[in-house]
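QUALITY CONTROL LOG
STEP: pairwise intake check
CHECKER ROLE: data steward
CRITERIA: each record must contain a sequence immediately followed by its structure tokens, with no blank fields

ENTRY 1 OF 2
RESULT FIELD BELOW
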Amino acid sequence: MKRLSMVQQLNSKTILLSSVLQIGDSREITTRSNILAVQRQYELFFGNEGEGTFPVFTKPIPKLDVSVPLHIHRLNESPVLSVRSIYLIAASTASVVHIGSTSTINGETRIKHIRQLADSSSTSSIPQATIHITKDG
């Protein structure tokens, strides 16, 4: 039995990066997100960043073999799925917020995080901040 999904109030701050907010039934939800995050100790930008292919984005992910039979007994006493209020701070990076029923949810997030830090021997050539404290302030 399909039910009607009713939400009186939804307060959401942020939903981003391939995320889904769905009220109501669906057959299938698929979310995908590929993220390249480069963090550097000093501000330095190259025009061709992100154009290379990293294996983390192309390598196949093995599927789980769910061969165990699953028996579910549900008792939905009401034809309405009723929610009074939802306060959602954030949903990010291929996440799903769903009020309703679905058959299949496929979600995938792949992140390549690169940190580039200066060698400790090369810090002498980097300008250092100087703070002068005076009596007046």
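ENTRY 2 OF 2
RESULT FIELD BELOW
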Amino acid sequence: MKGFLTGIVTGLAIGYLTAPRSGKDTRSQLTEAATQQTKGLKEQWNKTVARGKQMVDDVKTNSGLFKSQPNLFADIQSGKLDKYMNEADIARRKLKEGYNDKVAESAEAIKADVTKA
């Protein structure tokens, strides 16, 4: 820790002795640079926050998971939930059948290649 502080003091002394401008000018320049950087960071932060809010809104709109409870209960009562579950089950079965067909085709092709060899 002592070496660290010594390094800081030494660096400040060298900087002070070799500075091309007066302290007032240097402080003014540093303040201006810090202000510009802060302004840029604030703008970027605001853009990022806006983008994040837009993404959350898109997910809410497209997913249907954030329906209000009265609408959710109405869907359940009208049988839409069962309909969606049945459609999902049918889609799962079709995917499974397609996968099984591809595996069977691959097995047949391998068997034919082995028989030829």
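INTAKE CHECK: passed for both entries
DESCRIPTIVE NOTE, ENTRY 2: The CA atoms of residues 72 and 78 lie 10 Å apart.
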